[in-house]
Amino acid sequence: MLQLIGKRLAQLVPTLFFVSVLIFSLQHLLPGDPALVMAGEERDPVVIEQIRKQYGLDQPVPVQYVMWIGNVFTGDLGESMRLKVPVSELIVQKLPVTLQLAVMAMIVALVLGVAAGVLSAVKKDSAWDYVINVVGLAGISTPNFWLGIMLILLFAVNLGWLPASGYVSPFEDLQRSLATTIMPAFVLGTAIAGVIMRHTRSAMLQALASDYVRTARAKGLSERVVVWKHAMRNALTPVITLGALEFGTLLSGAVLTEQIFSIPGFGKLIVDAVFNRDYAVVQGVVLVTATTYILLNLLADLGYILANPRLRT
Amino acid sequence: MSAGTAPAPARVHPPEDETFVIESPGRRAWRRLRRRPAAMASLAVVLVIVACALLAPWIAPYDPTAQSWSAVRQAPSAAYWLGTDEVGRDVLSRVIWGARASLAAGVVSVLIAMAAGVPLGLLAGYVGGWTDAVLSRLTDAMLAIPFLILAIALAAFLGPNLTNAMIAIGVTATPIFIRLTRGQVLAARSEEWVEAARAVGNPHWRIALRHVLPNVLPPILVQATLTIATAVIAEASLSFLGLGQQPPMPSWGSMLNSAQRFLAQAPWMAIFPGMAIFLTVLAFNVLGDGLRDALDPRSK
């Protein structure tokens, strides 16, 4: 097992290196001189030269990369050109908002996905199974920004039950916080629920066909105990580890969902940065997102190894 | 098709005249696909959308960009089947024309991803060693950045228009094809028929292109269909953010963006473009699943 973990950790270094190179080169994809873009309306050559010096743009590209990555290691992700605030500060500010959404969305996804997956596996080839699969496929195929707009239309515009947009921190007013985040969390959660449902279904089908379930049945245990206690406990481990990998989907979804519901989180930060050509923010946010994703991936793998006795030796 | 499964021999039918006919893999896949009603229905939907995109100038009832101040935000009626938007443009005509942007983005970006990803995956899987290690880590790195975030970043850096959106989505989808092709090639490499091709003295390039590639194509084809669905959503998302198709030309994503401001007054502006995206994506997803089953040599 140690060898397996060591191998996974060794793969981490080059992957993170390539991620950083990719993110760094994004800026250099831009046609034209970054200093000119940073200068904006300013056309004074002295100012442009000063910007070039300040950001090290007069150095060769590999040197610029080393300077940038050196700063990243000390926690310095640069400064937002528009807001004149360190990027790391912005990220620390916005991250809790998106995390709240992500956790709520995961709860929605796990409750809906696992329940539907178990039901569809237990009632395999029945009308239930068919309907759940169709709904799951429809869920995966619905663009989440459209679902968000439709929910606003129904619950905010027509019924007036929930606010159409805005965000309140749970530390300020828990009830209003839930009211402002329940729709976006549902939108994000349903996008993953379909995937979790498919994983749960196949893991459950495998578990239900296994020897230990047959033994449990042979012992005369009730079907409820067999399904919920014996089969599901074993089927859930891969589902939860696979669920961790859906973090990327969550963040992709958060970009548009936060835009639609005007929630000041990570997703909105990156879209605003993209439109204001605030490159340091774009690079910082993408770097933090990718690193988190890679670490979650690693944790999921380790969790899987620990949970699977056959991989432990 | 899972990695490691060798292509099954073509099915042999003994017809009435007792001469044996060997069915080609394409024919067999089509016969299996035809037996799946959901897949056939989704194929029909895809064909209708393709027809809309191709025949838009002839079938759209109005000019999609023509504004009419006397018909602003009109509800669906006999004159305007799906209503009109905030400047009096016909929503149906815009949905029909919008199919062009969505389908073009879906197909072109997947072609870009395949053109780059399949050869690189073939190279990584066939050559192995350092080439494989570097390409695999690069693929991991790209896949670590959430799809839409990478596409948005690329589209923003390239500049907002439909062509750049297609390039951004295509580049973002490339690692999917590198990883898939590599895995398939690795599985195929140790098959006996590859060794046989090597034993009779075929050069490496011929083995890779003439023997390995055709055999790993079916799962790539399935993935391409499913990736078109992802690309259609990605294009709609980029256009929604203003990074894709530019006004006044319609795209489903940008229609949803302007519809958001008039939800209370003109909900039809939001409902129909969204349904168009949903139907297109659903059709490609179901078709992809059907193709997977039809191309799987283990399925009947």
TrEMBL record, chain A:
Main localization (coarse): membrane
Membrane topology: Multi-pass membrane protein
GO annotation, cellular component aspect: plasma membrane
All residue ranges annotated as the ABC transmembrane type-1 domain in the record: 95-300
Keyword Magnesium: no
Name of the protein in question: ABC transporter permease
CDD domains according to UniProt: TM_PBP2 (cd06261)
Membrane-spanning segments: 12-30, 99-122, 134-157, 177-197, 239-261, 281-307
Gene Ontology molecular function terms on file: dipeptide transmembrane transporter activity
PANTHER family (alphabetical): DIPEPTIDE TRANSPORT SYSTEM PERMEASE PROTEIN DPPB-RELATED
Localization, UniProt: Cell membrane
UniProt family annotation: Belongs to the binding-protein-dependent transport system permease family.
Keywords, alphabetical: Cell membrane, Membrane, Transmembrane, Transmembrane helix, Transport
TrEMBL record, chain B:
Source superkingdom: Bacteria
Descriptive protein name: ABC transporter permease
Keyword annotations of the record: Cell membrane, Membrane, Transmembrane, Transmembrane helix, Transport
UniProt topology in membrane: Multi-pass membrane protein
PANTHER family: OLIGOPEPTIDE TRANSPORT SYSTEM PERMEASE PROTEIN APPC, PEPTIDE ABC TRANSPORTER PERMEASE PROTEIN
Annotated ranges, domain ABC transmembrane type-1: 99-288
Family statement: Belongs to the binding-protein-dependent transport system permease family.
Keyword check for Transmembrane helix: yes
GO biological process: transmembrane transport
Principal location listed in the UniProt entry: membrane
One Gene Ontology term, aspect cellular component: plasma membrane
CDD domains in the record: TM_PBP2
Compartment(s): Cell membrane
Entries under Pfam families matching the protein: BPD_transp_1, OppC_N
Keyword field contains Transport: yes
InterPro entries: BP-dependent_transpt_permease, MetI-like, MetI-like_sf, OppC_N
TM annotation in the entry: 38-60, 103-129, 141-159, 165-181, 220-242, 262-288
